[in-house]
Amino acid sequence: MQETEEQKYLFICQSKSCLKRGSSHVRKELKQQLKENKMHKRVRVVNTKCMDACKCGPNLVYGNKLYQEVGGKDIDSIIRACQ
Fold first, then answer.
1. 63 dihedral zone (left: phi>0; alpha: psi -120 to 50; beta)
2. H or E segment and range at residue 43
3. What one-character DSSP code corresponds to residue 33?
4. Does 44 fall in a domain?
5. Is the previous residue joined to 58 through a cis bond, with omega within 30 degrees of 0?
6. Spans of the chain below 50 pLDDT
7. How far apart are CA 31 and CA 27, in angstroms?
8. I want to staple 18 with a disulfide (CB 3.0 to 4.6 A). Which of 29, 35, 38, 57 is the partner?
9. Do the domain assignments include residue 53?
10. Which helix (H) or strand (E) holds 19?
11. Residue 12 is part of which domain span?
12. Do 61 and 26 contact (CB within 8 A), yes or no?
């Protein structure tokens, strides 16, 4: 997938280790915040398989940055990065 100026992508791991560490909650929160900020049409949350950083999950990639141990405290800064 190629990122354009209009469409951006957040890739979030949904493999076993990250799910155990709360990635489904992070995904749900991201989607909710994107919708509340009216960004849900230009920022897409994409589920991925393992990112080979299981001990540091939940893992999320935006642009060229890997976010590790992502939790509720990180949602606002990730949303701001997408603007």
1. left
2. strand 43-48
3. H
4. yes
5. yes
6. 4
7. 6
8. 57
9. yes
10. helix 16-20
11. 8-82
12. no
Q: Is residue 78 part of a domain?
A: yes
Cα–Cα distance measured from residue 70 to residue 79, given in angstroms and rounded to the nearest whole number: 13
Number of domains in the chain: 1
Read off the amino acid at residue 9: Y
The pLDDT assigned to 2 comes to 59
Gap between the Cα atoms of 49 and 34, Å rounded: 22
Extract the tokens encoding 50: 């393992």
Which token pair is 12? 């979030």
Q: What does the block give as tokens for 1?
A: 């997938």
Cα-Cα-Cα-Cα dihedral sign, residues 46, 32, 3, 6: positive
The pair of structure tokens assigned to 27 is 């995904």
pLDDT of 70: 95
pLDDT of residue 3: 52
